[in-house]
Amino acid sequence: MGLLGHAASVDSELRAASAVLAAAGAQVSALFGPEHGFAGAAQDMVGVGSTVAQLPIYSLYGDAPEDLSPRPEWLDGLDVIVIDLQDIGSRHYTYVWTAALMLKAAASAGLEVVVLDRPNPLGGVRVEGAPQRDGYLSFVGLYPIAVRHGLTIAELLSWVVNRENMPRDALRVVPMRGWQRSMTWSQTGLPWVMPSPNMPTCDTVVVYPGGCLVEGTKLSEGRGTTRPFEIWGGPNLDMASLLALDLHGATLRPIEFTPTFQKHAGQSCRGVQVHVTDAWVFRPYEAYQRMLAAVLRSEPIEARWRTETYEFVSDRPTIDLLTGGPEFRTAVDEGAPLDDGLGSEARGAAQFDDERRASWLYEK
Description:
The longest helix has 18 residues, at 339-356. The chain folds into two domains: 2-189, Rossmann fold; 202-350, Aspartate Aminotransferase, domain 1 (Alpha-Beta Complex), CATH 3.90.1150.140. The protein contains eleven helices and ten strands. The strands form two sheets. Strands 3-4-2-1-5-6-7 form a seven-stranded mixed beta sheet, with helices on one face. Strands 8-10-9 form a three-stranded antiparallel beta sheet. By secondary structure, the chain is α/β, with parallel strands linked by helices.
């Protein structure tokens, strides 16, 4: 078998999945790693090359879109692909899309895929953010789904099977025992292992559906700090309008920080740390739109939006890929209220909420 996994592919005793499978009698012949690498050590959007240790390790992330799918020769000689990836429940997080591309490639090669299901750290109840509009699919959303989708990785792959009309036997699910949709991560009793370098804690996961939007701006999302996405800001940022916001379920604390990676690396920045006081009430996607609008409107338009190539796309602003369309960026640039756009996002999320239930594996 081939194993698609990463640093968080461990059991409840923190034993690596490859070792657990081998101990159970499986012949693990090849390892596949998503973005950040099989070891989970590379920063975002950094190409990860293939290396050979005791087993071949093939990277499913590189410098071009074709690097996102396994090469046919990598699948030669395999009977089955096992997918064991800890997702975090947000459309922007790329592991589910690596899994979907592996599923499609394996199905084309006649290989069965077995997915070992894992908890969605955001739970399986709440949905936020409308699916992407036509023309805005990318590797931060290969299929049109809500930003906070409320699905486990096995449920999302089952959704892909249904959407692509793939044979039912293309995917076999090993379900969880004891998981309920309303569970927080702490209620699972499982240890948290960082699935990527900037996802250090479950607190990071709670803000990420909105915090990832900072990647679409010229502000720093706090990469290299101990609390990325919770901490964000930029040099000489006008904080007055931001600190005046009343966010449900969160408190903002002004902070100075120095990013060590990507935007403003090595520069002193002013910003905030988002302290979530009630994760059930907090709506990260809406909250970060309101926060970004408050600070960006005081910046010149040319200083607002990230324009470099992002996840292999260079013909539209990054923020449009992350929000699934131009509406948020346009509202900010025109000084228009966000309420109409947020209302549309809520309606789109509600429609996806209805759609996703056909793929549920866990009812409660």
